[in-house]
Each structure stands twice: as structure tokens, then as C-alpha cells.
Amino acid sequence: MDVSRRARTGAALFAAAALLTTIVPASAATATSAPARVDPDPVVVVDCFAQAQVRPEEYLLACGDGNNRLVDLRWHDWGTRTATATGTDMVNDCRPYCAAGRFRAYPVTVTLANPERWPDHPDLDRFTTMRLLYTDTAPHPVPKDSTYKLTW
């Protein structure tokens, strides 16, 4: 074998080795990493302003006058069938009338349920009921365990 042929063979082997060192780590990293997974859109709760929310910290119940709001919501579960949180229901007592009333705090457990397709966004499911379970007293005349249809 002549020198020029050996040089060409050596250069080819060197180039192949260099190429393998750049390819092998990249393919090894791809083989060991988990494939990208796209989660489906979560179920949402729709607020008074027709905005989709996931695990909101606050949720306005009295859309017309703002006299009832869930605050400090801590979500323990947000699934495809239900979502559960604890928080506080802040309710204006409206005494002697709402503008002069005082907001009172009522500890509450909130459960969202009954997901259905959202007509305004058919690619999303939205919770359609909200259960409020007051863990101490409930605001008068509301029962300690109340379920509401979410219509917006």
C-alpha cells in the first residue's frame, strides 16, 4: 500500500470517527430522554367575564355587584371529572344596605364537577356545577351545602 493511499484511508477513518463522536452522543441523548408528550387541554371553569380559568386563586360568584367572592382558593385536586379546593367565601351582609354593608368570611370547600363541552370554545370542557360546603357557618339564608349551576 502506498503512502498516499494510507493517508487517504487514515483521513477517511479519522473523519468517520469524528462523525461518530458527534452523532453517537446526540442519538444516545435522544434514546434516553422521554418523548415529548402533549397533555390535552385541562377542564376549565369559566368566570363572569367568559374567561377560562384553571386553579384560580379567586372566583367571583356575584357577577352583577361583586358582593360575593371566593378568595384564597387552594386547589387540592384538578382532574378531568372534578376539582376540589378550600378557601374563603367573602359575602357582603348588605346591612343596612349593600353599599354600607360589611364583607364577612366563611370557610368553604369548593367542588367543581359535571364537565361539558364549552359552546363558545368547543375544543375545551368546562365545569358546569359548583358545590359550596361551608365548614363552619353559612351566610344567611344559604344552606351549609349548596350546589349551583355555572351558566356562563
Describe the protein in words.
By secondary structure, this protein is an alpha+beta fold. The chain contains one helix and eight strands; from the N terminus they run H-E-E-E-E-E-E-E-E.
Set out the fold topology:
Blueprint: H1 3-32, E1 45-46, E2 52-53, E3 59-60, E4 68-78, E5 83-92, E6 103-118, E7 121-134, E8 145-149
Antiparallel strand pairs: 1-2, 3-4, 4-5, 5-6, 6-7, 7-8
Q: Which value, in Å, is the CA radius of gyration? A: 30 Å
Gap between N and C termini:
84 Å
The main sheet comes to:
6 strands, antiparallel
Q: Give me the number of helical elements.
A: 1
Task: Give structural attributes.
single chain, 152 residues, alpha+beta, six-stranded antiparallel sheet, two-stranded antiparallel ribbon, 8 strands, globular, disordered N terminus
Overview in brief:
The chain has 152 residues and is α+β, with helices and mostly antiparallel strands. The chain has one helix spanning 3-32; strands at residues 45-46, 52-53, 59-60, 68-78, 83-92, 103-118, 121-134, 145-149.
